[in-house]
Automatic annotation (TrEMBL), chain A:
Organism (species): Pseudaminobacter soli
Superkingdom of this protein's organism: Bacteria
InterPro entries (UniProt xref): AAA+_ATPase, ABC_AA/LPS_Transport, ABC_transporter-like_ATP-bd, BCA_ABC_TP_C, P-loop_NTPase
Gene Ontology terms for molecular function: ATP binding; ATP hydrolysis activity; L-isoleucine transmembrane transporter activity; L-phenylalanine transmembrane transporter activity; L-valine transmembrane transporter activity
UniProt cross-references to Pfam families, sorted A to Z: ABC_tran (PF00005), BCA_ABC_TP_C (PF12399)
Protein name as it appears in the record: ABC transporter ATP-binding protein
GO CC term (a single one): plasma membrane
Organism taxonomic ancestry: Bacteria, Pseudomonadati, Pseudomonadota, Alphaproteobacteria, Hyphomicrobiales
All residue ranges annotated as the ABC transporter domain in the record: 18-258
Key words of the record: ATP-binding, Nucleotide-binding, Transport
Cross-referenced SMART domains: AAA (SM00382)
Biological-process GO terms, alphabetical: D-alanine transmembrane transport; L-alanine transport; L-isoleucine import across plasma membrane; L-valine import across plasma membrane
TrEMBL record, chain B:
Any GO molecular function: branched-chain amino acid transmembrane transporter activity
Listed transmembrane segments: 20-37, 43-63, 70-90, 102-123, 130-147, 179-198, 219-248, 254-274, 281-300, 306-326
Keywords recorded for this protein, A-Z: Cell membrane, Membrane, Transmembrane, Transmembrane helix
Its membrane topology: Multi-pass membrane protein
Keyword Nucleotide-binding attributed: no
InterPro entries assigned to the protein according to its UniProt record, in alphabetical order: ABC_transp_permease, LivM-like
Location within or outside the cell: Cell membrane
GO cellular component terms listed in the entry, alphabetical order: plasma membrane
PANTHER family the record matches: ABC TRANSPORTER ATP-BINDING PROTEIN, HIGH-AFFINITY BRANCHED-CHAIN AMINO ACID TRANSPORT SYSTEM PERMEASE
The species this protein was found in: Pseudaminobacter soli (ex Zhang et al. 2022)
Protein name, UniProt field: Branched-chain amino acid ABC transporter permease
Keyword Transmembrane: yes
Pfam families xrefs: BPD_transp_2
Amino acid sequence: MSEVSVASRLQGSGAYALELEGIARHFGALVALSGINMRIAAGERRAVLGSNGAGKTTLFNAITGDFLPTAGRIRFFGEDITDLPPHERIRRGLRRTYQISQLFKGLSVLDSIFLACRGVSRRRFSVLRPTSGDVNMVQAESILNAVHLEGDRDALVATLSHGQQRQLEIALALAGAPRFILFDEPAAGLSPTERRDLVAILNALPKHIGYIIIEHDLDVALRVSEHVSMMHNGRLFKEGTPQEIEADPEVQEIYLGGKHG
Amino acid sequence: MTVLASTEQPVSAGTVIEKIGAGNIVLLVLLVLYPAVASNFFLAQIGAYSLILGMIALSLMLLAGYGGMVSLAQISVAGIAGYTVAVFGLNNSGVHGFGWPFWIVVPFATLIGAVASALIGLISNRTEGIYTIMITLAIATAFFYFTQQNYSLFNGFPGYTGIRAPEFWGVAWRDPLPFYYLCLGFAVVTYAAVLYGSRSTYGLTLQAVRDNPRRMRALGFNVTAHKVVAYFYAGVIAGLAGVLLVWFNGRISPGTINVAAAINVLIIAVIGGMRHPIGPFLGAIVVVLMQTFAIDIVGAERFNTLIGLFFLVIVFVSPDGLLGLWGRIKPHLAQESLRSLR
């Protein structure tokens, strides 16, 4: 038994950022996820589509360790992380954003990003004020620019617009050298202009950072991803390029409600 | 590199004032000059006592304002430090009184208070909001009854008497004027530490934990540890205040740390406001003045009624206490000055 688990540990190849093997999650009698197999190459950008309740966010929670899968293994850059607590996964470069913004309303934008950078470094308990030359502060400034929030550097988070809060949500995930990010509906509630901005932000991310993006808006998903996985009732039922998915009759039937057909 | 660069820069008077804040400097000058106009009674019973209560309320403000944890056990922490001074220093109750020198007793008592506070934080950590208030109230109540019934350590109902502030550097620190400056010194140091610390890395993490513990966990922070450390720091402040309190009263007994005293600390912090560390001191002055002079106005039996009414008015008019009131009046004053310009 132990030999098998050692073998499966070594099986994972470094070429994949994320490998999911037979992930299942049950809530009592409810089957939220079952038999999810997914391999995402390093640097790959994947969109996960699916109707409400398809299990997309549950899948994210299983990958980040917010709760453990009922069955299955998760490998992150070849390492089995199935049993690691969430903060250990964060140390390894896995990040996520939330469907509903999880921000610090009483802090300024820059301080929020600074803390996110500090979170994976030491000196988290420092009682000294960070100087402007502090390495985490410099990182925070550059992330600020990357998500187009430089104009709101010192604004209180509570005073930001919804769109700016979504941008900050992304900024927090970019802190501290991420290798792979899970974006949970970053475009939810954004105006068309803000959506264009979001697409620009995602496309400008460094090439080595791969991600999975959950997105209802097919137009956004198709412009920021190379591969698309379709989920339905807790299962993955189709994978392909954006063009293939868009043209697939079954997808149109389930996801688009046959509006193209 | 950056450290070198910042030390090489000449510090001009302008940046010093900017860093400390003009308001803080004016306030400090006024407090230093206060003995010139104050009688001994106003120095000790009003001045020093307000500063001590302000420090205990400051420890609550640190927890509640920055950490979102309302603890009613801060008076117990001060009491633990006070009892430590009585037991390990000198008292004339004929129980314990090991006679340790003050320069060991004071840091030791403060440390004991801080550790006790951290323990309280560890216990109440799993709770939030009103449940934190309930569990810390339970701890404060239990500690009160324990001190009342335990004679081997706390000398029960009578507690300890005859505890004196030390004499050193040729100064009798229990005299009103030196004692006022002693309290002012401690109060300024703790106030400045909280004010500075609020913008430190740790201060920011504490406020972020208050706003969104879930996200902090997702960023790799150990939320529990950060909360317990906050209780430790608050315990240092309350512990120092407890040492001063036992010197001020010359005695400590269960009556010093009963439930009324625990709630008094909360009232002070709420009346003053918990947005800024100056709030608790404002609240302390108001409450001490009322406790002292309400007897002359409404009679000895009713001074709590007066404080209660004032508390109600404050909570109704300004949930952020006197600080919030000032925050609301300030823009009106600014407009007034614009009108006069016209």
